[in-house]
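Record type: monomer structure entry
Structure origin: computed from sequence
Chain ID: A
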Amino acid sequence: MVNIVLPIDFTETADVLIAGAVKFAKENRGKIFLIHVAPSDIGFAIGDMGFQYFPEVEQNEINEELKQLDRMQQQITSQGVECEHLLRQGIARDIILEYAAEKNASYIVMGSHGRSGIYDVFVGSLTKDLTKSSPVPVLVIPCHK
Protein backbone atom coordinates (compact mmCIF):
# COMPACT_ATOMS: atom_id res chain seq x y z
CA MET A 1 0.00 0.00 0.00
CA VAL A 2 1.15 3.53 -0.82
CA ASN A 3 1.05 5.95 2.13
CA ILE A 4 0.13 9.49 1.12
CA VAL A 5 0.50 12.43 3.51
CA LEU A 6 -1.96 15.19 2.65
CA PRO A 7 -1.41 18.47 4.53
CA ILE A 8 -4.56 20.56 4.54
CA ASP A 9 -5.10 24.20 5.48
CA PHE A 10 -8.89 24.66 5.13
CA THR A 11 -8.61 27.19 2.30
CA GLU A 12 -11.19 27.48 -0.47
CA THR A 13 -9.08 25.16 -2.63
CA ALA A 14 -9.16 22.24 -0.17
CA ASP A 15 -11.83 20.37 -2.18
CA VAL A 16 -9.68 20.51 -5.33
CA LEU A 17 -6.68 19.23 -3.39
CA ILE A 18 -8.68 16.42 -1.78
CA ALA A 19 -10.14 15.38 -5.15
CA GLY A 20 -6.65 15.17 -6.65
CA ALA A 21 -5.29 13.21 -3.70
CA VAL A 22 -8.22 10.76 -3.79
CA LYS A 23 -7.71 10.19 -7.51
CA PHE A 24 -4.00 9.59 -6.94
CA ALA A 25 -4.72 7.25 -4.01
CA LYS A 26 -7.20 5.20 -6.05
CA GLU A 27 -4.73 4.87 -8.94
CA ASN A 28 -1.98 3.70 -6.57
CA ARG A 29 -3.91 1.72 -3.95
CA GLY A 30 -3.02 4.39 -1.43
CA LYS A 31 -4.07 5.39 2.04
CA ILE A 32 -4.34 9.09 2.85
CA PHE A 33 -2.94 10.51 6.06
CA LEU A 34 -4.60 13.89 6.39
CA ILE A 35 -2.77 16.44 8.57
CA HIS A 36 -3.47 19.99 9.59
CA VAL A 37 -0.74 21.99 11.29
CA ALA A 38 -2.15 24.75 13.47
CA PRO A 39 0.07 27.62 14.54
CA SER A 40 1.41 27.48 18.09
CA ASP A 41 0.10 30.96 18.85
CA ILE A 42 -3.64 30.42 18.26
CA GLY A 43 -4.69 31.58 21.73
CA PHE A 44 -2.48 34.66 21.91
CA ALA A 45 -3.72 38.21 21.41
CA ILE A 46 -2.18 41.64 21.77
CA GLY A 47 -4.11 44.02 23.98
CA ASP A 48 -3.59 46.98 26.26
CA MET A 49 -1.57 44.78 28.59
CA GLY A 50 0.65 43.30 25.87
CA PHE A 51 0.51 39.67 24.85
CA GLN A 52 -2.16 37.63 26.56
CA TYR A 53 -2.94 33.95 26.29
CA PHE A 54 -6.54 32.75 26.12
CA PRO A 55 -6.61 28.94 26.38
CA GLU A 56 -10.38 28.79 25.72
CA VAL A 57 -9.88 30.55 22.37
CA GLU A 58 -7.16 28.08 21.43
CA GLN A 59 -9.27 25.07 22.48
CA ASN A 60 -12.33 26.33 20.58
CA GLU A 61 -10.26 26.84 17.42
CA ILE A 62 -8.68 23.39 17.71
CA ASN A 63 -12.08 21.77 18.29
CA GLU A 64 -13.47 23.47 15.17
CA GLU A 65 -10.46 22.38 13.10
CA LEU A 66 -10.87 18.79 14.34
CA LYS A 67 -14.50 18.87 13.19
CA GLN A 68 -13.36 20.04 9.75
CA LEU A 69 -10.79 17.22 9.64
CA ASP A 70 -13.50 14.70 10.59
CA ARG A 71 -15.67 15.95 7.70
CA MET A 72 -12.77 15.74 5.26
CA GLN A 73 -11.90 12.23 6.43
CA GLN A 74 -15.53 11.17 5.87
CA GLN A 75 -15.46 12.80 2.42
CA ILE A 76 -12.37 10.74 1.53
CA THR A 77 -13.50 7.41 3.00
CA SER A 78 -16.92 7.77 1.32
CA GLN A 79 -15.02 7.56 -1.98
CA GLY A 80 -13.46 4.22 -1.06
CA VAL A 81 -10.05 5.45 0.11
CA GLU A 82 -8.69 4.65 3.55
CA CYS A 83 -7.95 7.78 5.56
CA GLU A 84 -6.93 8.90 9.02
CA HIS A 85 -6.28 12.40 10.28
CA LEU A 86 -4.18 14.31 12.77
CA LEU A 87 -3.93 17.87 14.03
CA ARG A 88 -0.65 19.13 15.44
CA GLN A 89 0.62 22.54 16.42
CA GLY A 90 3.99 23.91 15.41
CA ILE A 91 6.02 24.80 12.36
CA ALA A 92 4.23 23.33 9.34
CA ARG A 93 7.30 22.24 7.34
CA ASP A 94 8.87 20.42 10.29
CA ILE A 95 5.64 18.78 11.46
CA ILE A 96 4.74 17.57 7.95
CA LEU A 97 8.20 16.04 7.40
CA GLU A 98 8.07 14.35 10.83
CA TYR A 99 4.61 12.97 10.11
CA ALA A 100 5.70 11.71 6.69
CA ALA A 101 8.57 9.86 8.37
CA GLU A 102 6.26 8.44 11.09
CA LYS A 103 3.83 7.12 8.48
CA ASN A 104 6.56 5.85 6.16
CA ALA A 105 5.06 8.05 3.45
CA SER A 106 5.63 7.25 -0.19
CA TYR A 107 4.38 10.71 -1.23
CA ILE A 108 3.38 14.07 0.16
CA VAL A 109 0.57 15.67 -1.82
CA MET A 110 0.49 19.47 -1.74
CA GLY A 111 -1.48 22.16 -3.49
CA SER A 112 -0.18 25.08 -5.48
CA HIS A 113 -2.16 28.30 -5.52
CA GLY A 114 -0.27 29.63 -8.52
CA ARG A 115 1.32 32.53 -6.68
CA SER A 116 4.94 33.49 -7.11
CA GLY A 117 7.37 36.36 -7.03
CA ILE A 118 6.78 39.02 -4.41
CA TYR A 119 4.19 36.85 -2.60
CA ASP A 120 6.84 34.21 -1.90
CA VAL A 121 9.28 36.85 -0.63
CA PHE A 122 6.89 38.05 2.07
CA VAL A 123 4.75 35.00 2.80
CA GLY A 124 6.82 32.08 1.58
CA SER A 125 5.61 28.91 0.01
CA LEU A 126 5.28 25.78 2.09
CA THR A 127 4.91 23.69 -1.07
CA LYS A 128 8.11 25.11 -2.52
CA ASP A 129 9.95 24.57 0.77
CA LEU A 130 8.79 20.95 1.00
CA THR A 131 9.75 20.16 -2.59
CA LYS A 132 13.28 21.33 -1.74
CA SER A 133 13.66 19.54 1.58
CA SER A 134 11.49 16.42 1.54
CA PRO A 135 13.21 13.04 1.37
CA VAL A 136 10.05 11.61 -0.28
CA PRO A 137 8.51 12.79 -3.55
CA VAL A 138 6.10 15.73 -3.36
CA LEU A 139 3.20 15.63 -5.78
CA VAL A 140 1.94 19.16 -6.48
CA ILE A 141 -1.67 19.59 -7.52
CA PRO A 142 -2.60 22.94 -9.11
CA CYS A 143 -5.44 24.44 -7.09
CA HIS A 144 -5.68 27.93 -8.54
CA LYS A 145 -8.69 28.98 -10.52
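Annotation 1: The mean pLDDT is 85.
Annotation 2: The chain is about 40% helix and 30% strand.
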